Amino acid sequence: MLCLGLMSGTSADGVDAVLARFNGAPQRPRWKLLRHRHTPYPVELKAQLIAAGQGAPLSAADWLDLAEATTELQATAAEAADPDQKAALVGCHGQTVWHRPPSARRRGASWQLLQAPLLAQLLERPVVHDFRAADLALGGQGAPLVPRADAALLGRVGGWRGLLNLGGIANLTLIPPGCGPDIDAAVLGWDCGPANSLIDLAVEHFSAGARSIDRDGAMAAAGLCQEQLVNRWLKEHYFQAAPPKSTGRESFGRDDLSRRLKEMEAISPSDAVATLTGFTAAVVAQDLDHLFAREGFRPIELLVAGGGNHNPVLMAELQRRCSGCAVDSSDGQGIHAEAREALVFALLAWWHERDHHGNAPAVTGAARAVRLGVRVEPG
Description:
By secondary structure, the chain is of the alpha/beta class.
């Protein structure tokens, strides 16, 4: 079956769209990535989405306009990846504007901006969306949703393998080995913390809006990471909490950056970006140390996907700090680093069609595994 997958992450840089073919057993499908296209958000739309994702007040009319513009760009991205309209089904994550993990006081909730019936009408095909709601309703975090799909797409090797996504937020998947005493272990995963969110916002701040990313890690390469700050930040509650856990730009956005910038007033902009880059890698390394202390194992490899994969300073920091595992791009496993999450949502749509469970309770904390997504048909 040919499926389209559409994904825009917390970086809000645009929509990744893939056209993929799936067949065979749902738990270990045969798959082929046929096409991947990235459609950037226009500058104004990106700014509006990032502001909305950090709590900026909007009128009801503004929310409607934003949802419609986001949906129309999703359709444009889909058409770029599938110009001949071959896909029978579309899986669309939508644009997260707020994520609230469950707590002792409140149930969890997550809002992905999308007008799914409009998207189905524009593409003239059924759309599966709202993938997080069923897991949240069962007491789960609703995130991350990619680990079970990662395991199905990548398969197993002789030891635990890790897949790290470096989008706006860093999330980690741990796939059990194909042999040995852990063969029956559950897939694991969680949101580590900020990846590119704080780095990008810092570059935008220091360049007065002229730049939005640290391209090729140039700014971080010119600076020096302040390890004493990194070590202090690693002691914050979120980074010490055990999984299941999830987070987003509402926690690691402009307000969080402003707090950290006050602690870096005495250092240069390049040192500040280098420190935030080292911090991103240190959060992942600490999580792997906590995993070893808690479970007694480390992954033998860490495959990196997402935009952070293209930052050589960040990749070097991961290699330096994540001792005991080989760090490399996911590209070598046939999964283009920036296509991975869109491919996951194409698979989740196919799983919805096949009535196959999509969440991993060991990851999200949900009461049970459940089929994910809501399907809407074109009129």
